[in-house]
């Protein structure tokens, strides 16, 4: 019989009572959980104790290290400087799609190992899988070759990367322990560090459609992420960005790909372009390519060419028509006025109910499902004007989405006065704050 150096119940009790966990306790509990020696019920209790009591920077860095060590590390080699980006998750967040080829077209290499969506936030792989023929699963050799030849890869993370996080994240999802700063920060950073990221830009979302609802919470997460980066020798920058309103007009799968392609062709919604360029500048600065102007590269069409090569390299046809929904329902304005609010969470749940997302891991998603938001905060609308287009293959889902759209949108009937426009945040940018190496 193998003897374990600790008893799980003592580790749980220590954190429950507000003590710091020792490095040895942390290494053991993560390893023992991965081996199945610590049970789900014990890890759930420990996650709740951490949720309530927190972990300091040293504990969080050690916890991250233990999760990295639960699996393999990927060492991707490339002749160009590599730089990665991660978003904490939002509604209409298709930024990876234009960003990865743009940064590659600027001279860096972007290995972006992504996940599928769960709940109201969409997953990058679900979006890309709406492109006919496109393949998410790549071998390490294929990733390396594509990185060298194209400069950008967006594909599924392999199951051997941070397996402790895979198990713990699924457990947190069903035990109301997701929204704990040290657990979110270690979860994200363990995967990125295991992937071999040496330079990382984090898009920390704040607002109703994000995990962090307030700026204070988002700042704490940004600070923890950059601290872990520093502790593990990863040059890390974090931008706090607005997720009170969906990004762009499109929320779903194929509709978001179409919007990303608009951006790559020089058009697209202003907020999507703004955030894509802001993140590109941060990535290029970390990669030592700070003198390259991503706006010029975007306008030149080179980012779109790189997108086409990236999609083709993974079996997709970038020119093929995207899937169309079996049913489209249009919601019109019942009054005239100025749009003063469009709640990201409600829109995310509406798109999910239409079939764009999944309720359980492994569920299929509808490629064509989603919501087009045709009026954004700050815009004037007239009675009878289309406000939303609902796309779905299951028309019976429309009834479940409509109340959410109704709740999401606020219209000030008084008209386009200054107060209404200010309430609609028409002039506030997407990027709110910047964090780097533990300072703002
Ligand atoms: N994304 C992750 O990868 N982990 C979390 O805990 C939350 C968001």
Helix and strand run: HHHHEHEHHEHHEHEEHHHHEEHEEEHEHE
Helix content: 40-55%
User: Are any ligands bound, and if so which?
Assistant: uracil
Name of the CATH superfamily of the largest domain: Nucleoside phosphorylase/phosphoribosyltransferase catalytic domain
The N- to C-terminal Cα distance equals 51 Å
SS elements, strand count = 13
By CATH reckoning, the class of the largest domain would read: Alpha Beta
Q: From the 3D structure, determine the CATH topology of the largest domain.
A: Pyrimidine Nucleoside Phosphorylase, Chain A, domain 2
Q: Which sheet architecture does the biggest sheet show?
A: 4 strands, mixed
Number of domains: 3
Number of helices: 17
Chart the SSEs and their pairings:
Blueprint: H1 8-16, H2 23-35, H3 40-53, H4 57-69, E1 84-87, H5 96-105, E2 110-114, H6 124-128, H7 140-149, E3 152-156, H8 163-173, H9 181-194, E4 199-206, H10 215-231, E5 235-242, E6 250-252, H11 254-264, H12 270-286, H13 294-300, H14 302-313, E7 327-332, E8 337-342, H15 344-356, E9 370-373, E10 380-381, E11 386-392, H16 398-408, E12 409-412, H17 418-423, E13 431-436
Parallel strand pairs: 1-4, 2-3, 4-5
Antiparallel strand pairs: 5-13, 6-9, 7-11, 8-10, 8-12, 9-11
Helix pairs in contact: 1-3, 2-4, 4-9, 4-10, 5-12, 5-14, 9-10, 15-16
Organism: Saccharomonospora glauca K62
Keywords: Glycosyltransferase, Transferase
Subunit structure: Homodimer.
